[in-house]
Design a protein that fits this description.
heterodimer; A: alpha/beta; TIM Barrel; six-stranded parallel beta sheet; two-stranded antiparallel sheet; 8 helices; 8 strands; B: alpha/beta; eight-stranded parallel beta barrel; 10 helices; 11 strands; about 40% helix; globular
């Protein structure tokens, strides 16, 4: 089972005018420590300041060289599918195809309400949006026009879409484990990690609230 | 008059995968050579591959340290204002406050058609969206919810309004925005004079002329933008010096120049004309 690192991007405890330095530094350390991927989440209406996931990954494109850059998971129904497809393609190009696009319906009503999105139709919207986005990436006609694919990105985007159709994140088909689950003793953490691996997950995304990479490395060594 | 650089991010014949380093190297060179800003454009339905401007500036936020990062101009009416406000705030935060947000209604129907947006309502949409975005950046309630401002980004970035010569929009730029952006692509000298007079009369302090193409060898490709642009420095060096002085004398505070071939030496030479 691969162990990757999920970053929770939040404002620093000490007011910093350059959050990018802190985030980029953490990303470089993750890459240097040999983790295969860096993942970010997606939320915007929940009473805490957040950064847009695609914008954040774009910034990590130039801070890192090899790691996969993922979103777990992008709330597709909140956005316009063609405009979103354009942005995804932009990150895919800038990352040299390192983008791993986890997509989902979203499950937090507050995010939908803030944007005036239709919460109750989110599963249907996800499916139709994915169809539209695939058509857009393939250069096919959408709305009578076409989103011109960036050369080299045509299929790379398509191949990396991981769909999370589950309503509750903890039962997601995309490997995703809440950080609370390893808030325990090292022995217990070892047992839990093995259990996740035993369930058959191919990859697990670990988050440290305090950006303690050493702890995540230690967890990786349990496997 | 300040002189900054616009970069058109287009694919080129280089092997795939070099695109990021090309974009990043160019941005770093612009910064190293002392230009105060790097600006990107916004289009998506016009038959050629493009990058999303805020995604591109996200990448440049970490690739550069000091330069201003601008959009000339972001087509606000194509996007959802609150979701856009969130993305704008993200670039503002990631760049350490270097974002300069040029906005406009958009003027190309193909972009609207591709997104199913209402072209005929674009001015009204822009006005309404700007108000919503300002409220969102201030942490005020929108749609019954709140977009939490990132610390240090409250109120949003400086917003500059792109407008041709419509008195109402130019007055809005003067009174409610941090600048007015005119375009060298399709304006006439008369348009610029008229616009500048309206802008100054309304109290405007920051007039920017965007998309001034530079080719001092005066060899534009037939049918290219460089050939068609109405106010450009696609001409001999002597003529370019005269035109640039004219732009300066019109009262512009900043000019955004583009070299279609990415020739920064030429842009530096143009800067030296001032």
């Amino acid at each position: 089972m691969k162990v990757s690192v999920q970053i929770r991007v939040s404002p620093g405890v000490i007011s910093d005018d350059r959050p990018m330095r802190r985030i980029a530094d953490y990303a470089r350390r993750i890459e240097a420590a040999g983790f295969p991927g860096i993942w970010v989440g997606d939320s915007l209406g929940r009473g805490r300041p957040t950064l847009d996931p695609l914008t954040t990954l774009a910034s990590l494109c130039s801070a890192t060289d090899q790691v996969e850059l993922g979103i777990a998971v992008l709330q597709v129904p909140l956005r316009h599918p063609v405009e979103l497809a354009h942005r995804v393609q932009s990150v895919q190009m800038l990352s040299r195809n390192r983008l791993r696009l986890g997509v989902g319906s979203g499950s937090t009503r507050a995010d939908f309400e803030l944007l005036g999105g239709d919460y109750d139709r989110r599963f249907r919207t996800l499916m139709s949006s994915l169809d539209t986005m695939r058509a857009g990436w393939a250069g096919q006609s959408v709305n009578g026009g076409a989103l011109s694919p960036w050369p080299g990105c045509e299929n790379a985007v398509l191949a990396n879409v991981a769909i999370d159709l589950a309503e509750r994140p903890e039962s997601a088909s995309l490997a995703q484990v809440a950080s609370v689950s390893l808030i325990c003793s090292p022995d217990e953490a070892r047992r839990r990690l093995r259990r996740v691996a035993g369930l058959g997950f191919d990859e697990i995304l670990l988050v440290s609230q305090t950006n303690s990479l050493e702890e995540i490395e230690r967890a990786r060594d349990f496997l | 008059m300040r002189l900054s650089v616009v970069t058109f991010m287009r694919p080129d014949p280089e092997p795939r995968g070099r695109a990021l380093s090309r974009v990043v190297d160019y941005a770093r060179q612009i910064e190293r050579r002392g230009f105060p800003g790097i600006w990107v454009t916004d289009s998506l339905g016009r038959g050629r591959p493009t990058l999303d401007p805020l995604v591109a500036l996200g990448a440049l936020s970490v690739a550069t340290q000091r330069v201003e990062l601008g959009t000339a101009v972001l087509q606000v009416s194509l996007r959802h204002p609150i979701e856009l406000a969130h993305r704008v705030q993200s670039v503002q935060a990631l760049s350490g406050g270097r974002l300069r947000l040029g906005v406009g209604s958009g003027s190309t129907r193909a972009d609207f058609d591709l997104l199913g947006a209402d072209y005929d309502q674009r001015f009204r949409t822009l006005m309404r969206s700007l108000e919503i975005m300002r409220r969102a950046w201030s942490g005020e309630e929108v749609n019954g919810g709140v977009l939490s401002p990132w610390p240090g980004c409250e109120g949003g970035p400086p917003v500059l309004l792109g407008a041709w010569r419509n008195p109402r929009w130019i007055a809005y730029a003067a009174r409610k925005c941090a600048g007015w952006i005119a375009s060298g692509l399709y304006s006439s000298w008369d348009d610029l004079e008229t616009g500048m007079r309206l802008y100054r009369e309304a109290g405007g302090q920051n007039a920017v002329l965007a998309n001034v193409l530079v080719d001092l060898s005066n060899t534009p490709e037939p049918g290219s933008l460089a050939e068609r642009a109405t106010i450009s420095l696609v001409c001999s060096p002597d003529e370019a010096r005269v035109r640039l002085k004219r732009i300066d004398q019109l009262g512009f505070d900043e000019v955004l120049v583009v070299s279609p071939g990415g020739a920064l030496d030429e842009l530096e030479r143009v800067r030296d004309f001032l």
